[in-house]
Amino acid sequence: MPDFRAVFFIIGFLLLALAAAMLLPAAIDALAGDPDWRAFVISALATGIAGAAMVLGFRQAEPPQLRAHEGFLLVTTSWIVLAGFATLPLMLTRAGLDFTDAYFESMSGLTTTGASVMPNLDGRPMGILLWRALLHWIGGIGIIVIAVAVFPVLRVGGMQLFRMESSDKSQKIRPRVSQVSGVLISVYVTLTTICAVSLVIAGMPAFDAVCHAMATLATGGFSTHDTSVGYFHSPAIEWILTLFMLIAGMTFVLLAHAARGDLTWLWEDDQTRWYLLCILVFVAGMTLWQWEANGRPFGEALRSSSFNVVSIITTTGFASEDYLVWGPLPLLMFMVLLFLGACTGSTAGGIKFFRICVVGAVARSQIAHMIHPHRVTLPFYNGVPVSDEVVRSVLSFIVFYIAAFAAISMTVSAFGMDLVGAMSAVAQALGNVGPGLTAEIGPIGNYANLQDGAKWLLSLAMMLGRLELLTVLVLLSRTYWRG
User: Fold this and answer.
1) Which is nearest to 409 in space by CA: 437, 430, 394?
2) Residues 273, 381: contact at Cβ < 8 Å?
3) Cβ-count burial of 249 within 10 angstroms (0-12 exposed, 13-18 middle, 19+ buried)?
4) Residue 280 near residue 274, CB atoms below 8 Å
5) Cβ atoms of 222 and 107 closer than 8 Å
6) What is the structure's pLDDT at 80?
7) Residue 64 and residue 67: Cα distance in Å, rounded?
8) 184-189 long-range CB contacts below 8 Å, 24 or more apart?
9) 462: number of Cβ within 10 Å
10) Cα-Cα-Cα-Cα dihedral of 204, 255, 218, 15, to 10°?
11) Nearest to residue 93, comparing CAs of 50, 42, 51?
């Protein structure tokens, strides 16, 4: 059995941090003379009291030492609890969402999905817009630390490949987090700041720049306007966001190496090469389609294709225009992009390229074995043989991902959604992308009109995708609870 005291003790501290974050939009609204600041203060007090009660109620004489067993429960429970308390400002302010919509919005924010049920963003107070951006930013740094420090220990989906130190065989999670979190947070904050300053220089208002920078580095996609980035009609802003979305889709551990002057990984890391190559191919295809089939000027076609392809493959979900009207081939390409994701160890969702690389390596190894059955053939990743354990983890993840997509899609369709709508809604939720591929839930739509049952299923899919499925599904095992 897991140590519940240690798990809820840590969740208490996370709630205290969430309460502190609520004071930022409270201050913004107070300075602007908006009465919503009271709702944020009340939400912060309620969240802080709950967090303090958990810290005091579950504290132990010795600091908690988390094993992998507690790690599974902590990762899943923290997302459920934090999303629940994050609903308070969405319900108590003039946003006026009911609990279902508020939970959908907060889960979408913390999982950096960016699917929204809130229309009329242009007329919303700054506090609630900042709160949505903060949910992205908090969820983004949370998933980076978990993906690099915790998932390898939990052996989720082949993440063992991404230990910070290959010599570390410890099954205790706490030391791993303390080792990696500092440098990752430093890179995350620095990139967010540079992105925000660049957007201001390009002509974006400072408040919008901060919100969009937080959403960009978190690969979230919540905008401050209904028409997303298209509201600004600025090629410079689109190119800046394209660059930072591209960077945010890369492994943050490798970005930390880049900050120290080591750029060799750009051409030595398998998944980074395939990630950049895939973007190049999709951008080239869509640019040529828009240029030839839609008659758009080449430069404009290149910019819009680059922005929207990078936005979807990194699971950010910003939109510069309604790409659903580009034609059948781009629509099919965007459907594929909903599944791919970017690199592991980033804030992006989706299947991710390291798994695609491992599957490709296994396929090449199997083909070679069929041609030369007496030759020993091994799959390689970054020049190193991939262990059977990693192969099993990766293949299990992909099987569960496809199974979850099929099962949730069929269930969502029972709530009145058409086939394309249901499939794209679930694909984007599992991939933490944001927009679907129909007019209602597409790049210029939202999820407000979906039935409550569909919203709860999509909230579940967001969490499953964000936490790499197996982390959540292991809690359904009787073996886990028997110890």
Assistant:
1) 430
2) no
3) buried
4) no
5) no
6) 93
7) 10
8) 184/141, 184/144, 184/145, 184/148, 184/252, 184/253, 184/256, 185/141, 185/145, 186/256, 187/252, 187/255, 187/256, 187/259, 188/140, 188/141, 188/144, 188/217, 188/252
9) 29
10) -120
11) 42
Length of the chain: 483
CA angle 315, 142, 119 (to 5 degrees): 50
Percent of the chain at pLDDT exceeding 90: 61
Q: What angle do CA 112, 118, 119 make, to 5 degrees?
A: 130
Cα–Cα distance measured from residue 71 to residue 313, given in angstroms and rounded to the nearest whole number: 29
Beta strands 380-381 and 384-385: pairing type?
Answer: antiparallel
Local structure of residue 160 (DSSP, 8 states) = G
| DSSP character at residue 436 | -
Answer yes or no: are the C-beta atoms of 145 and 139 closer than 8 Å: no
Distance between CA atoms of 306 and 299, rounded to whole angstroms?
11
Backbone angles phi, psi at 317, to 5 degrees: 95, 5
Q: Could you please report the per-residue DSSP string of 118-136?
A: ---GGGS-HHHHHHHHHHH
Instruction: Please tell me whether residue 381 adopts helix, strand or coil conformation.
Output: strand
Q: Which helix (H) or strand (E) holds 71?
A: helix 68-92
Note the pLDDT tens digit of each residue in 297-340. Answer: 999 999 999 999 999 999 999 999 999 999 999 999 999 999 99
Q: Position 103: which residue type? A: Y
Q: Which of 395, 409, 286 is nearest to 351 (CA)?
A: 395
For residue 437 the two structure tokens come to 């591929």
First to last CA, the chain: 5
Nearest to 147 by CA among 113, 110, 172, 184: 184
d(CA 173, CA 26): 34
What is the enclosing helix (H) or strand (E) of 200? Answer: helix 173-201
* Encoded tokens for 37: 């600041």
C-alpha span between 221 and 212 (Å, rounded) = 8
Q: Are the C-beta atoms of residues 309 and 283 closer than 8 Å to each other? A: yes
pLDDT tens, 427-463?
Answer: 999 999 999 999 899 998 899 999 999 999 999 999 9
How far apart CA 261 and CA 236 sit, in angstroms, is 27
Q: What is the DSSP letter of 351?
A: S
Number of neighbouring beta carbons within 10 Å of residue 198: 19
